[in-house]
Amino acid sequence: xxxxxxxxxxxxxxxxxxxxxxxxxxxxxxxxxxxxxxxxxxxxxxxxxxxxxxxxxxxxxxxxxxxxxxxxxxxxxxxxxxxxxxxxxxxxxxxxxxxxxxxxxxxxxxxxxxxxxxxxxxxxxxxxxxxxxxxxxxxxxxxxxxxxxxxxxxxxxxxxxxxxxxxxxxxxxxxxxxxxxxxxxxxxxxxxxxxxxxxxxxxxxxxxxxxxxxx
Length: 215
What we know:
Helix content is 50%, strand content 13%. By secondary structure, it is of the alpha/beta class.
């Protein structure tokens, strides 16, 4: 009986946490006007909107440069440029592409390495609203001294307060919540043990920032 009660309490806490996470996601967009930072980073995703938003922020002088992290290795710079708004001159001078990241932790390590190489202390982070909490957690785990300003790209299907009634949105929110909990658990373990493999890795083990190709 006690075991079943414990299971019920854990399940209840999990559900409450899911809805709290969902409310946090929904509160992230529309994103408020960000203060200027040293630079802007965009984590690639299922659409080009994240990159487009980052380029627009660059045009508004919200940062000196943009890093697009997690670019597919098969995508050439000219191909990506053709899909983004803004001037060729600005893209060619002030946009760096990162090809090393294959997941969100990889994005974080790529972003941290780039920021260290450029001596940046503050970044505007651009990614989808549902992806933002985990992205910030991952970046802070490897770059705790960098100030991060979230600038979330809205996911229209998640704007509905009854997101849980549609299978697609319920699955997306639940999956992202589980991934977020996994990162929280990992970071909690690191704090308990005093060992942080990602943050403590020697510079040679971290991905080097990728310089832009010649246009």
